[in-house]
Amino acid sequence: ADPQTPIETAAQKEMIISYLTDHVYATSAELGVFLNLRPARVRALVGELIAADIVVAEDGEQHRNYRLKA
């Protein structure tokens, strides 16, 4: 797999933020379908958004849910 460019990474993060704005909660699988990315890549992107204090993770019944930080 080709490494992501900073522009692609920034665009993908913006798409995650947009998705969470519209849907409130999402799993990495849902975001992966939306972005057409593998779950590992989605988790890496979401991890960066969590580190930046933009997204928070919450444990759901079966999956970890992500949402924008209030």
Can you offer a commentary on this structure?
The chain has helices at residues 6-23, 28-35, 39-51; strands at residues 55-59, 64-68. By secondary structure, the protein is α+β, with helices and mostly antiparallel strands. The chain has a two-stranded antiparallel sheet with strand order 1-2.
Helices and strands, with pairings:
Elements: H1 6-23, H2 28-35, H3 39-51, E1 55-59, E2 64-68
Antiparallel strand pairs: 1-2
Helix pairs in contact: 2-3
Strand content: 5-15%
Given the C-alpha coordinates, what overall shape results? globular
Terminal residue distance: 35 Å
Helix percent band: 55-70%
What is the tally of beta strands? 2
Taking pLDDT < 50 over at least 5 consecutive residues as the criterion, the unreliable ranges are none
Structural class: alpha+beta
Number of helices: 3
Pattern of helices and strands: HHHEE
Rg for CA atoms? 11 Å
**Strand arrangement across the biggest beta sheet:** 1-2
Look at the structure and give the mean pLDDT: 92
Largest sheet: 2 strands, antiparallel
